C-alpha cells in the first residue's frame, strides 16, 4: 500500500490543547500541529528519556499491534516514522510468511502475502512517536500536570481551555485554546464535566468480558530456528477461550503474551505460566518458552469491559471540544484495533479542520460515530459468541458467525482469501469485501483437504530438543 506524503494544511487557529499523552494523544497532537500555530500536550505522568514504561500505561509490558492502516497514518503524520522505528530495532514481519498462525481449526499457509507490519515493545513505539512529535517546533509538552477541569464561555456553548495543576494538588493554572482534545483514556472525566456545564449525560454501552493476559520478555535461545519468526495461537470461540502469541521485538528479545476471557487468566509464577502455555492446545509456545531465558517478571493485565460512549448521539455538545481514542470507545485489546482506531480518529479530525474551526466539533463527532461502527461490531460480535457475555446479539448473529468461521478457514489454505483476510484485519479493506460474489461462492463451495487439516508448522519438539542438547 502506498503512503501519501505529508500535505501542508492551512492554519485553523492559534492554539490547540491535547489532554493526555496516550498514543491517540501523541498522534492527534502531530495532526493538530499542521493546523494550529501552537499545540500543547498535557500529560499527568512524567515522560522519561528513552523507551521507558510509565504508570499511566499499565498495559505497556504486553503485546501491542499497530495495524497497517495505523502505521500508514503515522507515516503520513510524521514523515520518516517507519525508518525511525526500524532504526530503533523494530522488526518488519510479513503477516502470513513470517508467522506460524493457528486459527479456525487449521494452521494457515506460510506463503508471504506482501503485507508487512512492525513488531516492537509498546514503550519503543510510544517513544518513537514522542520523538517525532517533539521535533515539531510548534509543539510543547507539559508533563507532570493534571487536567482538573475545562473552562467555558459564559453560556457554556464553547470550551475555551483547561485548568491544570500538579498531580495531588498545587497551584492551578489555566491554558486557553480554540480547540481542546480529550485523549485521557477510558477513565475520562468528560461525562461528569459536561453534566456540570448543563449538558445531558452521554449514552454509554458496556460489554463485560473479564479478559486477562500475562506477558513476559525473553531472550531468544541461540540456535533456535523453528522456521517462523512469530507465533499466533488464536482461540476457537466459544469452544476454547485461551490464546497465545509470541513476537520478536528489539534487542533480540521475544515478547510472549497468553490469556483468556471470563477470568481464566494465566498465573504469574514460572511454573504456572509455562503450564498455561502447555494448555493452549498446541505445544509450540510451551516448547519455545521452556528453553528461553526470562527477562524480568510476568506482568498481568486485566480488561473488564468494552466501552463505547455515544457522543455523536448527544443533542447538544459544546464547540471547541473533541474526544479521541479510549475516551470515546475502548475495545477488547485482544483484537488489536485500539491504536489504529485512535489514529483513524486523529486523521478524521485533521480532515474536518481543513474546512476551518467553525462547526468542527459537530462534524467530527458525527464522523467518528460512523467510523467506530465497524471496529465496534467486529470486537463485540466476537466477544458475544461466549454465551455468558451479556449484550444484545445483532440480527442473523448465528449465520454471520457461521460464515465468518468458514471464511477464516478458507483463508487458511486459499492465498487470495488469506490476503483479503489480512487486509480486512489491518483495516485497509472494508469487511464488506468478504461478501463479494466471488468470495461468497468460494466460502460456500470450498472445503479444506485432508493435507490442509493435518498441516503443522516446523516440528517444534525436534527443534527444542536440539537446542536443549546444544
TrEMBL record:
Residues 451-470 are annotated as: Disordered. SUPFAM superfamilies: FAD/NAD(P)-binding domain. Transmembrane segments: none annotated. Gene3D superfamilies: FAD/NAD(P)-binding domain. This is Secreted protein. InterPro entries: FAD/NAD-bd_sf. It comes from Archangium minus.
